[in-house]
Amino acid sequence: MNPSLHRSWKARAGRFCLASATLLIAGLTPDLTHAQTVLLHTGYNTVQPRPWQDDQGNWWNRPTTWGVGTWSNLVDTENHATAISYQTTAMFSSYTSGPASGDLLDYPDFVSQNSFVATTHSPAGRFSGLDSTKTYTITFYAAQNLTNFVTQQGLDITVTGESTASGSLLLTGPVGQAAYSELTFENLRPAEDGTLSIAYTIASGFSRGTLNAISITAIPEPGAVLLGIGGLVMLVSIRRRKSSLRK
Fold it and tell me: Which band of pLDDT confidence, cut at 50, 70 and 90, is reported for residue 144?
């Protein structure tokens, strides 16, 4: 083969492989570099818009009511629309607001100050529009200044999808000091219909429970990560080959 034709063919093949690898990585990059997170502020108010942005640049969703209803068209922390909805299927007893400063968990003051409260009710909710092929991490957050509420507070929370996970979200500590708590469930896979159902009950030994926020994060699948790494390796190899051809 003519050497110049051979070099030309190799160059064209290199450009084709480079373009293919670039398209592959471009398609995978969002899953590899950005685990999509949706934030819900579970405190009813008419002050903040829907959605609203905190001082750290994260976007939050807030309810239209503290009763039964659906929060649709949820956005992620970067204000991108998602297919995820959250439905309150059984309402909380009430909602409250009050001082909750000095938060050590880095939540916005507005989130720490407003919450849903359970006393006699057993609230329930459901996420829908989830990808049943992915796993999710859900974190529940509670905050309260115990000066205003002398009874300590606790919720038992059960999340049901492909399987079931349970835990307790407790606010304890000396009366007069602010209390904060998180409860996180990892590796949750939705049911086949793309839902995760949540049941809240007042924890044993407590007379009430409170909930200020929920975050849900889609975790990239290991297969997608490995495929993306393979694409990156291919891209580096092709670029090195192109460099050697030029020489």
Answer: confident
Describe the strand order of the beta sheet including 196-202 as a list of residue ranges.
69-71, 85-90, 124-128, 196-202, 153-160, 164-171
pLDDT band, very low/low/confident/very high, at 163 (cuts 50, 70, 90): very high
User: CA 158 to CA 122: how far, in whole Å?
Assistant: 12
> Which tokens go with 28?
């995978």
Distance of alpha carbon 153 from alpha carbon 174, whole angstroms: 12
Q: Which DSSP helix (H) or strand (E) runs through 160?
A: strand 153-160
Amino acid letter, residue 56? Q
Closest CA to 143 of 99, 200, 90: 99
Within 10 angstroms of residue 13's Cβ, the number of other Cβ atoms is 12
> Which carries the bigger pLDDT value, residue 246 or residue 73?
73
Counting Cβ atoms within 10 Å, is residue 224 exposed (0-12), middle (13-18) or buried (19+)? middle
